[in-house]
Every structure is written in structure tokens, then in C-alpha cells.
Write a structure and sequence with these properties.
Layout (H helix, E strand, L loop, with lengths): L1 E3 L15 H10 L2 H8 L6 H4 L8 E4 L3 H12 L6 E3 L3 H5 L8 E7 L7 H14 E12 L5 H11 L11 H10 L16
Parallel strand pairs: 1-5, 2-3, 2-4, 4-5
Helix pairs in contact: 2-4
């Protein structure tokens, strides 16, 4: 588990969204690996930090999941391509997979939109669909000591009518232990360029 900082233009509410022309430019220019390079920089470090093997079954969740999956597949040459989903709240609490289906789950820049109950439900489901000794890698924006910086993150990331919570590693770890994960550590996924 690690924490970084994203930009998620599609996630902004309509009144705070990027202007349409800038949104079109962003979507047209910064797709695939280039967008991952800017928003999910730490993913480039995962193959060196995790014990990834060709036989691993990988589940990638979130808006940038396909680009992350493509990058990992190209670097690791997995026997089976990663499974990609962008689950709704109900799906996070009941992942549509059999028990012990995956060895690794990757979930980046999503947890700030979940309350503690949603995060616990997701981690419980992750525990269920992971094999014995499976790994979940998760990162998100961490709270700052500065109220102004936290207010900027709220302005950038909060969606209308959704929960918003920046968690410290200790808070995230406490919920992870409650879900049954015995070994929780930080990974050095920095720097996140954006």
C-alpha cells in the first residue's frame, strides 16, 4: 500500500470540471502509457517492487485500469492478461469473481471517494478473491498537515454526493488489518509526477 497524488479530470463535478476543450485535449493527447506516466507514475516501479511472475493472475481496478494493465502485461509478459474492471460501489462490496481467483489486486487513486465502510467491504472482498499469500497494492492521496492543501485536494477530487476522505497510512492499515490482512507495508512508488 502506498500513497501518492493524482489528477482525475473525468472525476470532477460538472461545475468544477476542466473546460471541454482542455478535457478533449487531455483525452486525445494523454492516453495509454503517457497518461499512466503522468498520473500513475508509481506503476512503472511495480514490476521491480513486487514478486510478479508470468503465472500471476492480476486484477486491476479503476479509471486508468486498462492502461495500467497494458503496462504491466508488456513488462512482465503474463501468461494471462490482467483482468480490468471499474466497479461501482455495489460491485466493490461483492467482486464478481470466485474465491482465490487472483494473486495480485491493484487499486490506485480510488479510496478517497469511499467511506470507511466501503473501504472495509472492498478489502474484505479483496481478501476473498486473493489466493493465499496474495497481494493488494493500493495508493491514494495522503492528507497534508496543511488545511489549505487538503482543501485543494477536496476541490479537485471530491465528486458531488460522494464521500471524500484522505487517509494516512496508519488509518488505511487499521482497516486493512480489520479485513484480515496481516502484513501491511508501504512501497516506495514515488515520485508521482501529477
Amino acid at each position: 500500500m502506498s500513497q501518492g497524488s493524482p489528477l482525475d479530470p473525468p472525476g470532477l463535478s460538472a461545475d468544477r470540471a476542466l473546460p471541454a476543450s482542455l478535457r478533449r485535449w487531455w483525452s486525445a493527447r494523454w492516453t495509454g502509457s503517457l497518461r499512466v506516466l503522468l498520473e500513475e507514475t508509481g506503476v512503472f516501479l511495480l514490476p521491480d517492487l513486487l514478486p510478479l511472475r508470468a503465472t500471476d493472475r492480476v486484477l486491476v481496478l479503476g479509471d486508468a485500469a486498462q492502461s495500467i494493465a497494458d503496462l504491466l502485461d508488456s513488462r512482465i509478459a503474463l501468461d494471462q492478461p490482467p483482468v480490468v474492471i471499474n466497479p461501482s460501489g455495489e460491485e466493490r462490496a461483492a467482486l464478481p469473481f470466485d474465491d482465490a481467483s487472483f494473486t495480485i489486486i491493484i487499486s490506485g487513486h480510488q479510496q478517497h471517494a469511499w467511506d470507511d465502510g466501503d473501504l472495509l467491504a472492498f478489502l474484505n472482498e479483496s481478501w476473498r478473491v486473493l489466493t493465499h499469500n496474495g497481494i493488494i497494492v493500493s495508493w491514494d492521496v495522503a492528507p497534508s498537515r496543511s488545511k489549505q492543501v487538503n482543501a485543494i485536494w477536496r476541490w479537485l477530487l471530491a465528486k458531488k454526493d460522494e464521500s471524500f476522505r484522505l487517509r494516512t497510512f496508519a488509518e488505511f492499515g487499521r482497516i486493512g488489518r480489520e479485513a484480515g490482512f496481516a502484513w501491511i507495508q508501504t512501497l516506495t512508488l514515488r515520485p508521482f509526477l501529477w
